[in-house]
Design goal:
Length: about 350
């Protein structure tokens, strides 16, 4: 088994055969209160224990509140770098441009976070994908000026908040694809937190990430139950069972040898409610995954596929609206066009051989 990045939760590591694949973006999804931020903090805490530089970008929760909440578990996150991108909800006027926001970094060690509520300098109208990307890129560049060690782990909490402020309509797929590609280019293992209210909700990031780990929460009588599942994990086998989860004094615990039992009538999680619909969803999802990989390959080979990307966006919108037959029709057309373009294009040049060390003759 190749190199893996531990999630910091032993039971989850067992489900993904030892950990996440390094340098890739992953999504932690689930409803409110299911444990997404706790799981992401486990991931960062494990990196800190290993001496890895870690960065958290918070758009949902001010750093002071995050520090107080995670302090309940007794965790030492003092060395965690945190980029505060939470908008000041009390601000009603736009006071600076997006470009200015991108140059006003608010990055500090968690140990320096104090006070009950620290407002970011970012206003709600200025929180965009581009401004957040610029902030992250600038922090990575400034870190390399201070030290040669790059950030190894990064958490975005949350993409749901970012979409709420800046993404509307069909362009959201392109923006999210651009954002995930940007995270991949950072060469850090990244986790994106995203809200998912139910299993039928389809968001763009679930397709475009390299993997999705989903947290479940439901009512069993008068008791709240939790579980976890690996919905997608490219490049590796994984445990496809839904496993029970508890949140206690030590944080989140995954019972990888037990199977979750869903009860509680209409309030419970509905698993396999419609077998036929689930098969259609799986078929279209797999096809869209394949299409997106072909789009990436076309970009790598410098083939212009802008028109096809627009059609892919339409397919994604149909899928999100549960118009599965329309989504399938558009995806099949895109798949056919991409295969033809890639088949007719010249093969990519072979990778150049690394330079020989000084003193070594050919």
């Amino acid at each position: 088994m190749g190199e893996r990045v531990s999630t910091g939760v032993e039971g989850l590591d067992a489900m993904v055969r030892g950990g996440l694949l390094p340098g890739r973006p992953y999504v932690f999804s689930g409803p409110t209160g299911s444990g997404k931020t706790i799981l992401a903090t486990h991931f960062l805490l494990e990196g800190l224990k290993l001496g890895e530089p870690c960065l958290m970008v918070t758009l949902d929760e001010p750093p002071s509140e995050l520090k107080a909440n995670m302090g309940l578990f007794g965790w030492n996150l003092d060395r965690l770098k945190i980029l505060d991108a939470t908008p000041d909800v009390r601000a009603h006027k736009r006071q600076r441009s997006v470009i200015d926001v991108g140059t006003a970094l608010d990055v500090r060690d968690m140990e320096d976070v104090n006070g009950l509520r620290q407002s970011s300098q970012i206003r709600a109208l200025e929180v965009t994908v581009h401004s957040v990307q610029k902030m992250i890129k600038q922090e990575f560049a400034q870190r390399l000026e201070r030290t040669t060690e790059r950030y190894k782990r990064i958490v975005i909490d949350s993409l749901t908040a970012l979409k709420m402020f800046s993404m509307q309509g069909e362009d959201s797929r392109i923006l999210i694809q651009s954002f995930l590609r940007f995270l991949s280019e950072l060469e850090a293992t990244s986790v994106i937190i995203s809200e998912r209210l139910d299993r039928s909700t389809i968001e763009t990031e679930f397709f475009l990430s390299r993997g999705e780990i989903r947290l479940h929460k439901w009512l069993d009588g008068n008791v709240i139950r939790r579980a976890i599942s690996v919905e997608k994990f490219r490049g590796s086998s994984f445990d496809d069972k839904i496993r029970p989860v508890t949140i206690g004094n030590a944080g989140l615990v995954v019972f990888s040898n037990a199977q979750a039992s869903f009860r509680g009538g209409p309030s419970a999680l509905r698993v396999g409610e419609s077998f036929l619909e689930s098969r259609i969803i799986e078929e279209v999802s797999n096809l869209l995954d394949a299409v997106l990989r072909q789009v990436d390959e076309a970009h790598r080979r410098q083939i212009n596929v802008k028109d096809i990307e627009v059609a892919v966006s339409r397919a994604m919108v149909h899928f999100q609206r549960r118009h599965y037959q329309k989504a399938l029709k558009h995806a099949l057309a895109c798949d056919s066009q991409l295969k033809q373009l890639l088949g007719e294009a010249p093969p990519p040049p072979p990778p150049s051989a690394p330079p020989k060390p000084p003193g070594v003759r050919a």
